Amino acid sequence: MRKLDKKAPDTAVLQEAWELMCTARAMSDLYEERAQFTQKYVHATSRGHEAIQLALGLQLKPQDFLSAYYRDDSILLGIGLQPYDLMLQLMAKRDDPFSGGRTYYCHPSLNRDDMPKIPHQSSATGMQAIPTTGLAMGVQYREKIGLDQPIAGEAPIVVCSLGDGSVTEGEVAEAFQMAVLKQLPILYFIQDNEWDISASAKEIRAMDANEYAKGFKGLEVRSIDGTDFFTAYETVQEVIGIIRNERRPVMLHAKVPLLGHHTSGVRREWYRDDLEAHGKRDPFPKFRQQLVDLGFPESGLDNVRSAMKSKVLIDFERAQQAEDPRPEDLFLHDYAPTPITEEKGEREPKGKEKTVMVDCALFAVQELMTTHKECLLYGQDVGGRLGGVFREAATLAEKFGDGRVFNTPIQEAFIIGSTVGMSVAGLRPIVEVNLLTISGRD
Ligand SMILES: Cc1ncc(C[n+]2csc(CCOP(=O)(O)OP(=O)(O)O)c2C)c(N)n1
Ligand SMILES: [Mg+2]
Fold first, then answer.
1. pLDDT at 396
2. CATH topology of 11-327 equal to that of 357-438?
């Protein structure tokens, strides 16, 4: 019989993990059984990735932030969402907790008090890396200037979940660069199933994420078999501990099989010749056997499996009956209306000398930074040494300190995209690129 070691999950965690793994499996089974109905809604499942995802989801706390991608339904179950919640989103129902039926399946966004916060996700692969790293930069900034003073061991962590294929996106490199440069409290959670859609590892990359990470000095890496719940749980516990306590970046690279379809629209049997090999690495029978070896009665495990199957079916049929969005809902959750709708005051106050535009901008930034501690300025050459290539940030670093006014690498995508994450952290970033015309994004 296998003995649990010190860091191993306790019995309650194992029971919960088994319940949730059965739930995830029952969901992917049912979606496949009801394919004629579910295929109307493009969806992906975590089939094959369940062990590593549950190991993470079960250890996140409400103060944490999570960027989950479309294959992460087991992480979502792990943080406490119900199959019913996920099915409301699958079927784009009015009460879909992520977007009220606006975005397609597994594009989560969540702002519940008792769960990690999930910023709105993009459909473009890897595009979560920059905003999420910006968010980690925001979390760090808040702690540095004293806006947040987390209790030791309870500081928030930021998780950026990525598929192996998405790691080759250029934006991911910019994010890694900043995470190591600034030593941000972020976990890059890479699920490596060796598939893009129909392109396999050999065609799309010269190295895996673990090897790639070696070029980013200061990025701690763990590379594990993501099909073993025990290894996964212990490693996630270790890396979360590092980030929560030492406030530095870690990558967790987990090797997993892809057992389901890439998404519902792209059937595995059309192009996969490795289904048998991947099937042998299924985390589900492996976990069951490990629990049996620990002394969990087989009948008890199987009862849980049937109970979860029934629960998933009930939730599915309930979700089918749920209300669809109403036409008028389209106008809800719009941008907050701006209080400023017309220009007031005088552009050229009497008796004053004209001020050139660049100075006006400088004074405006200065005014904002004086009033708002959550306002900061970063970008190309804005730091104290020069103060902007047009001197538009002159004196600001001296006045507000290098922590609030600082240079960044020549990474326009990061500079601009990180403001999204910074804003999620409740900050008001002002950023600068040397010239819009050289940013390649005009
Ligand atoms: C920028 C961008 N390019 C292409 C796509 C189409 N696309 C969707 S998923 C995917 C494969 C991603 O593979 P990976 O990151 O390994 O995740 P997996 O599906 O294997 O979990 C691609 C190419 C996209 N969504 N966004
Ligand atoms: Mg992949």
1. 96
2. yes
Classify the phi-psi angles of 48: left when phi > 0, otherwise alpha if psi is within -120 to 50, otherwise beta.
Answer: left
- pTM for the model: 0.96
In 354-438, which ranges are E strands?
Answer: 375-379, 405-407, 428-432
Q: Ligand 1 pocket check: which of 121, 171, 196 to mutate, most ligand atoms within 8 Å of Cβ?
A: 196
pLDDT below 50 — which residues of the chain? 1-2, 4
Q: What is the pLDDT of residues 327-347, one digit of tens each?
A: 999 888 888 888 999 999 887
Q: Which atom of ligand 1 is nearest to the CA of 258?
A: 20
Which tokens go with 32? 């496949």
Q: Which fold has domain 357-438?
A: Rossmann fold (3.40.50)
Amino acid occupying residue 114: D
Q: Give the start-to-end residue ranges of the domains of the chain.
A: 11-327, 357-438
- Under 8 Å CB-to-CB from 225, ≥6 apart: which residues? 231, 254, 255
**C-alpha of residue 8 to centroid of ligand 2, in Å:** 28
Give the model's pLDDT for residue 8: 81
Structure tokens at 119: 């910023």
Predicted confidence at residue 5, as pLDDT, reads 53
- What one-letter code names the amino acid at 127? M
What's the CATH number for 11-327? Answer: 3.40.50.970
- Would you call 375 helix, strand, or coil by DSSP? strand
**pLDDT score at 326:** 97
**Ligand 1 residue neighbourhood (C-beta within 6 Å):** 71, 123-125, 163-166, 191, 193, 195-197, 262
Atom 21 (ligand 1) nearest CA: 163
Structure tokens at 124: 């473009």
User: Percentages helix, strand, coil for the chain, rounded to the nearest 5?
Assistant: 45, 10, 45
Reported as type and span, the H/E element at residue 252 is strand 250-255
Three-class DSSP category at 76: helix
